[in-house]
Design brief:
The chain is mainly beta and about 200 residues long. The chain is about 10% helix and about 55% strand. It is built from one helix and 15 strands. It has a 14-stranded antiparallel beta barrel. The radius of gyration is 19 Å and the shape is globular.
Length: about 200
Amino acid sequence: MKRIIICICFLFTLAISNTFAQEIGEKVYKEIIIDGKKINKWLVVYGFADYDDKGNSIYYKTEDEEWWYDIDDKGNTIHSKSSDDFECWFEYDDKGKKIHEKYSDGTESWPEYDDKGNIIHYKWSDNYEEWLNYDDKGNEIHYKDSNGFEKWTDYDTKSNRIHVKKQDDKESKDYWYFYVLENGKKKKSIVCIDF
């Protein structure tokens, strides 16, 4: 009986600490899905994000950098700035479709859309290119660029990103996403990686 009580106390403490883990570099024990199977695994907190009342990302932090996002009344990101003073400005048409991005290093990009309104291609002023693919719900599931980088993304049933696999010619890395919801909307996300 004593072992059961100790085990329950340990699991409760673990659940509480994992729910509120926000320290980058902290180890957390989380349930994840790999190849359709739920498993529990130790991960390391890589970063976290904060969201406004409408579920728009307004802040993102990792060990290396921080980003702040300005959102207009339509929910579009119109400006972002990093902790190293790199900035991005975004322009939209009357229908809310992004038409132009300009960066503080002088580069610019222009998106191309499919017939469903998804951005499928970016052409950059420095000849860099990006391609994106989507599922039936409009979630980006695959991304690749002209430098050989690729990214695959998995979502839960509510279209929240839960897993990203990034790969370039040097390494492959998995990122796991966990959310704190308030009234059914995202308030915070925690991003974890293998350690």
